[in-house]
Amino acid sequence: MARSYKKKRDRNAAGAILAKGLRVLTVRARPGHPSQGLLQAGKTVFACALGRGGISAGKREGDGATPLASMRILTGYFRGDQFAAGRRTRLAMASIGPDLGWCEVPDDRNYNRPVKIPYGASHERMRRDDRLYDACLVLDWNIAPRRRGRGSAIFFHLARPGFTPTEGCVAVTARTMARLLPLLSDRTVVRVVR
Fold this sequence. Notes:
It is built from two helices and 14 strands. It is an alpha/beta fold. The protein has one domain (22-192): L,D-transpeptidase catalytic domain-like, CATH 2.40.440.10. The strands form three sheets. Strands 1, 2, 3, 6, 7, 11, 12, 13 and 14 form a nine-stranded mixed β-sheet that branches. The termini are far apart.
């Protein structure tokens, strides 16, 4: 009898999360592994990759650190030909075309903004051969206001096998991303803590 009640209660809680969406994803470093993390979504915990520089309160361009911050999910990008689950979300998601880039030069007027390739300043190509950005959510780190050198392209995206370090982003498996996307909105905050 108690087990039946617990299952029903868990189903009701899951239904409430699905209806309201997730407000907070809490990320912390995995003990003893500063470039790997644990991402808590409701009562469920998933493995994730963090920046090669671990978590830092003093994030700088090129340091490879994941910012110690609360960052709202703004929007996202996905490869429809590789990650169909990118359509199943409340987020505004745009398709990644071959000409989509992200500027990473602090002195450029489009620093930490999407740009059209070819682009004169150094930029990251969003349509990647390694498929890390097949689903890529933009976090509001250093977006408004933008400060030179405080870091660019801090995303929530797909992880490499073995959760090898990112350049400062938070990354999860494609399966985890597909599970989370229907629960995320532009009100969801990714909170990186110590």
